[in-house]
Amino acid sequence: MRNDVLMLHFNIWPRGELVSWIPPEEWEASAGVVEEEDLRGRECFVGIVATSSADIAAVAYLFPAEDEGPAAVVLDAFVPADNVARLEELHRVSYRSWLDDGSLSPTDGDVIDERAILRQIQERQEEGFAIEEIACNPRGTAALMRALDDAGFTVTSVLPSFAAMSPAMRELEKLVRGKQIAHGGNRLLAYGMRSLQARRNLDGDLKPDPEKSSGNIAGPVALLMALSRVLAKEPERNPLVRWGVAG
Q1: Is 228 exposed, middle or buried (0-12, 13-18, 19+ CB in 10 A)?
Q2: Contacts of 148 (CB under 8 A, 6+ apart)
Q3: Which long-range contacts (CB under 8 A, 24 or more apart) does 34-43 make?
Q4: Residue 75: beta bridge partners?
Q5: Residues 62-78: pLDDT tens digits?
Q6: Residue 107 pLDDT > 80, yes or no?
Q7: CATH class of the region 2-242
């Protein structure tokens, strides 16, 4: 609260301040209902975060709003099966509960099997997800990006920088508070949202801070990457583009 007063009334921006992002109750209130059958044929943008080969990798499918309905999110997530017990001890959270409810899928061994990610994306496309573009953090995913490109997908490298993330974070805030994005209450995505800490620079821009976040945030970051590509395709919704800052 003190920092908000300093920023709003005195234009004093705490250097490198870590701020809580979307409150859990606001995220939960926007859950809505996501019926995957209803998403078939709809354009979607995909974000992939697989920067840790030993922990959760996330693939977020973001369907922009159509007509009067909200945008929708579907999350696929993967974890090396041999690491589950160690990760539960490390993060003090039940990975097995996510495996049991289908929020998380195991891959064989102690590193993420990127072939499983590729197969799942191809299956989603075959099911009717009209994948327009896939955004990947290139860190640790160079081979997966090549495989996706070879499979015929449009793949874009997106770094989790202030320039890419801040417009997406501001847009997601608006969508959540206006209940204009449905995520179906996905438990793993909710955990990531609760865990996410944002770093704010002196210009007021935001980006996720994985080092300060309390748990794995691959799901929310994948969603933000997908949203960043929606904004790139719809520049009138991007405040940085609107004011001539991005380029």
Answers
A1: buried
A2: 118, 121, 134, 136, 155
A3: 34/72, 34/73, 34/74, 34/182, 34/183, 34/184, 36/74, 36/127, 39/63, 39/72, 39/74, 39/128, 39/129, 40/127, 40/128, 40/129, 41/128, 41/130, 42/66, 42/129, 42/130, 43/130, 43/132
A4: 60
A5: 999 988 789 999 999 99
A6: yes
A7: alpha beta
Q: In sequence order, what are the beta bridge partners of 104?
A: none
Token pair for residue 84? 């589950």
Task: Tell me the one-letter amino acid at 44.
Answer: C
Which amino acid makes up residue 221?
Answer: V
Would you list the domain boundaries of the chain? 2-242
β-strands 197-200, 18-20 pairing: antiparallel
Tell me the one-letter amino acid at 107: T
Q: What is the pLDDT of residue 69?
A: 87
